Every structure is written in C-alpha cells, then in structure tokens.
Amino acid sequence: MTVIEVKDLHKAYGHNHAVDGVSFAVGKGETFGLLGPNGAGKTTTVECLSGLRRPDSGTVRVLGQDPARRRRALAQRVGVQLQEGELPDRLKVAEAMRLFAALYERPDDWRAVLRRWDLGPIAAKAYGDLSGGQKQRLKLALALVGGPELVVLDELTTGLDPVARRETWTLIGDLKAAGTTVVLVSHYLDEAEELCDRVAVLRKGRIVAHGSPRELAGRTGTASLEEAYLALAEEGR
Amino acid sequence: MRAFAHLSASELRLLSRDPATLFFMVAFPAMLLLLNGSNDHLEVFVPGYLAMVLAIGGISTLPGVMAGYRERKVLRRLATTPVSPFVLLTAQIAAQLAMALAGAAVLVGVAVIGFGVAPPAHPAALALAFLLCALMCYAIGFVLAALAPRARTADMMGLLVMFPMIFLAGAAIPREGVPGELREIGAYLPLTQGVTALRESWLGQPTPMPFLLVSAIIVLGTAIAVALFRWE
C-alpha cells in the first residue's frame, strides 16, 4: 500500500524554485529518507506533505488524500516534527504531552509516551528551562502522541549529543517494527544509512538520486552512503 | 470540545504563571481601590477598574502572546495537529476572560465587602457590559497582534495603546477627573463606551447607546483582525 505519493511537485517562492519537479512514493511501513544540502527543498517538500503549503503544481497524496485540502483530517493520522516550532516557555513537559494528546481523537496514552522517551524525570520542567536535546526529545514525543500511521521528522537528531542520537535511532527502530511509516529529513548520512530503507537525494529542488543506501553506494562505486552522497554532490558542480 | 477545554485551561495556566499579568489583572485594581479608600464615591471607580482589568489583559497582554506564538512558530506547530484555528483563538479568548473574571471577582469583593460599596443595580446588564467590553478589548488586541511584526513590538504597541486609553477613557480614573481638552479625546476612544456601559449598569440607568457602540466596535475590530491576521 502506498502511504505517500508525490508526482511532479513544484513550489516556488518568487523566482526561487524551492521544489522543481519532485516525484517519489513511500510504501506502508517504509522508512524513507529525504537527504540533501540546505536549500535543496527538503523542508518545502515536508511542508507540502503536512498541508502547511499548497503546491504550485503537481499532486501530493498522503494516505490517499490531498493534504492541502484535508489538512485537519490527515493531521489525526500524521505526526509531524517541524524543524522550527517552539512551545510556550512556561508550559511544562507533562502539560505539553497531555495537551497535545487532547487534540487527537484516538491518542496514545501520553504517560506511556512520556516514559518511552525518557521524559519522566523532566516531566515537571518548563519548556524554557529544557536543554536543546531535551526539547528535541519532547518535540519527537509530541509528534507521536497522537498515535500516527505516518510520522514526518524534519531534522530528527539535530541538537542531540551522540548518546541521545543513538537512543533516538533505537526508538525510531521500534516505530518501524510497529509498522509506522516514517519520513526522515536529514543531512546526517550515518543516520539515513542506519534507519532508512530508501533515500532520495535532493539538490536545488530536484531528486538527483534515489534508492536504498546500499544501491546508491553501489551505483556510484563507493563504500558508504556518505561517499555516494559526496560523489553525487560533486557531479552537480 | 475536549481540545478547546484543554487549550483554554492550558492558556489560563500560562497566563497565571506570568507574574506581571497576575499582578496587573488581579491584584493591582484592588490595590488602587485601597489607595482611594477614603473617597466617598468608590462606586464611580469600580466599573472603570473593571474596564481597566479587561484592557490590561486584552489590549496589552494578548497581542504579545499571539505575536509571540507566531514568531516562535507555536501556531505553525499547532497547525500540524487536528486543532482548528477557530478553536485556537477562542481558547485564547476564554483564558483571557477567565483571568479577567478572577480580577473582577477580587475587585468587586474588596469593594462591596471591604468598603461597603453598593452592589451593582443591574447585575445582568453589568454582566453583558463586561462581556462586550471584554470582546472589544480582544478584538483590538488581535488587530495589534496582526499589525505587529514581532512579539516585542506587539508588547510595546499594546502598552502604547492601553495606557493612554485607560487614563483618557475613564477606566483608571473617572473622566470627571481628567482636564478638559484631554477629556474631549476620551469621547472618541472605544474603551470610553465600555466604561460608560459598565458604569451605567452598576449605578442603575443602563442606556442602549454605549452597548450598541461597543457591539459595533467588536464587529469592526474582528473584521479588521480577520483581514489582517497572519499565522506566520
């Protein structure tokens, strides 16, 4: 079953063609990585998937529906972690979890999500007092508390220390095991290699390569996704 | 409905955690009453203070909160959840109103029980005047939130509009105490109509005109806010 289908997506801001003809599909239970340098169009693609932006042309289908028209209905089933997007400084961790759970029709037990993401010890802390890593973990937990079938994670582990990154990978692994479809936006290639079944490499609003991390490495005659990525980036120069 | 209840409770909790809001909306008006305690006509001050509570919350606090949510992309984050923009805004209004009611309860309690001020002659009219004056302040607040590019500008604009307004409209001090030319300006301020509606209701001769004017300003302000408001 196809969870995401994007066909010939175009989105420009003035003369800047942020996304210039992107097509890809993501199947149920897959973990799909969107890679690329800053300004490649990753975030705009994510925004079109979440219904925050209306494409100029092309079609976007998420769980069979158009996110631009059915944003709220889809939001029940799609969890999004935005690269930007803060919370009020005086809102406490447990309050944020309870509040977000209340916004969904069939949320997960927010206390269980809180424990799973190891937020219990900081449950009474205010958002403004959290460290960067703690904020990031809370944002992830908030993206999952609605019990989504699809999660879109923009800059999953930015701001996390190496230990926290590994822990986050394990938890994403658990999500995959539970059958959740994941779209991962990242510029950490080790992360994509570890977690993603397939990746698409974006550059200047276009997909320049896609396939499994191993395929990409094979195609470019390199040993790792990182080297493949660098080889692809060189080609465009 | 569950989303609305949780959001408004959450917003109210956040408001009550802001020491400035808590002080100026709940303690300050009752304090002013204590300072004027020797005045024989406290019943003239109390309805004005009710309007002041509403103006402090709606015109000076609300714009900063909303512009801050926009600047820090809180609104954007919430836009990826199933909550509707309408619920988001009404929850904000409900929290403001609850906070104002707490301030009003303390104020009226101190006035009636502590100073023996005669209770409102027309409680129903007073309640309506309070609600309309509140909605008018929130409409003005949302217009400011829409105009301000950043949270800090919104805070500043809120103070710049709220302070002269509460003094010239007869909220912080009765208009009788304002010198002639300044009193003239007061006649054209939206809050003046709210103060008049509150005062007439409290003292016992409510007339329809201020109620109608306040309602008209609510409609106009809301229309402007809707036209100007930006989510990001």
From TrEMBL, chain A:
This protein's record includes keyword Protein biosynthesis: no
PANTHER family: ABC TRANSPORTER ATP-BINDING PROTEIN
Keyword entries, A-Z: Antibiotic resistance, ATP-binding, Cell membrane, Membrane, Nucleotide-binding, Translocase, Transport
Keyword match Amino-acid biosynthesis: no
UniProt-listed CDD domains: ABC_DR_subfamily_A
Annotated signal sequence range: none
GO cellular component: plasma membrane
Top-level taxon of origin: Bacteria
Lineage: Bacteria, Bacillati, Actinomycetota, Actinomycetes, Streptosporangiales
Organism, as annotated: [Actinomadura] parvosata subsp. kistnae
UniProt protein name: ABC transporter ATP-binding protein
GO biological process per UniProt: response to antibiotic
Pfam families linked: ABC_tran (PF00005)
Membrane topology category: Peripheral membrane protein
Compartments, as annotated in UniProt: Cell membrane
Molecular function per GO: ATP binding; ATP hydrolysis activity
Domain ABC transporter: residue ranges: 4-229
Automatic annotation (TrEMBL), chain B:
Gene Ontology CC: one annotated term: ATP-binding cassette (ABC) transporter complex
Gene Ontology biological process terms in this record: response to antibiotic
UniProt name for this protein: Transport permease protein
Family label: Belongs to the ABC-2 integral membrane protein family.
One GO MF term attached to the UniProt entry: ABC-type transporter activity
Subcellular location: Cell membrane; Membrane
PROSITE patterns noted in UniProt: ABC_TM2 (PS51012)
Transmembrane residue ranges: 20-38, 44-65, 86-118, 124-147, 154-173, 209-229
Entry annotated with the keyword Transmembrane: yes
Taxonomic superkingdom: Bacteria
Native source species: [Actinomadura] parvosata subsp. kistnae
PANTHER family with a match to the protein in the record: DOXORUBICIN RESISTANCE ABC TRANSPORTER PERMEASE PROTEIN DRRC-RELATED, TRANSPORT PERMEASE PROTEIN
Xref: InterPro entries: ABC-2_transporter, ABC2_TM, ABC2_TM_bact-type, ABC_2_transport
Domain ABC transmembrane type-2 stretches: 10-232
Keywords associated with the record: Antibiotic resistance, Cell membrane, Membrane, Transmembrane, Transmembrane helix, Transport
Membrane disposition: Multi-pass membrane protein
Main location, first listed in the record: membrane
Upper classification of the organism: Bacteria, Bacillati, Actinomycetota, Actinomycetes, Streptosporangiales
Keyword Transmembrane helix set for record: yes
